């Protein structure tokens, strides 16, 4: 979740980050469009597995790619806090690999999956677009700035509750007690983790939107 860029950022780093953020924005825009059209054109639960088969590989790829943001923060090419970036990236990586990919029987037919993707993709399209425009040296429209630091107020609870529900459903079908125990441990971590992420974003919102 990279914030503003460091003053000492090299030209090569800026070009790399511009390409990275632009690429991620387009990938998440594709996911957003597909998820939204799937719900609008075929709201019947029976059609959800088809949407899952289309969206799951793209979402897993996009979120795996986002692991790079931990390295961005750790190496200093962005000023994102390493622990916060790691927490969000790790939580989503667990979700896409250990839940969505590993337990398609409970994920594919669940409305929570598409709701989660709508929340994730909306937030990430705005986030990556915001940073791409900033890295390109262009002025950021106030509506985009407001969206970047305001939409999370609704999208975070929606996304997090959907993640929690899908992980809980996975615990009801796994026969591996170790896996079940790990999932329950992660389910318990959602409470402090969610509070930490939400508090961080509220702090960022106050800092950015009160400037000027």
Give a nutshell description of this structure.
The protein is mostly helical.
Task: Provide the fold topology.
Blueprint: H1 11-41, H2 48-65, H3 68-75, H4 82-101, H5 104-107, H6 111-135, H7 142-148, H8 152-171, H9 177-209
Uncertain runs are 1-7
Distance between the termini: 23 Å
Number of domains: 1
Rg computed from alpha carbons, rounded to a whole number of angstroms:
17 Å
Number of helices: 9
Beta strand %: under 5%
Tally the beta strands.
0
Report the structural category.
mainly alpha
The overall average pLDDT, rounded, is 94
Helix amount, in percent? over 70%
Helix/strand order: HHHHHHHHH
Instruction: Based on Cα principal axes, name the global outline.
Output: globular
Mind describing the biggest β-sheet? none
Question: Can you put this structure into words, describing what you see?
Answer:
- The protein has one domain (11-209).
- The radius of gyration is 17 Å and the shape is globular.
- α1 (11-41) packs antiparallel against α2 (48-65) and α2 (48-65) packs parallel to α6.
- It has helices at 11-41, 48-65, 68-75, 82-101, 104-107, 111-135, 142-148, 152-171, 177-209.
- The longest helix has 33 residues, at 177-209.
- It has 212 residues and is mainly α.
List keywords for this structure.
single chain, mainly alpha, 9 helices, 212 residues
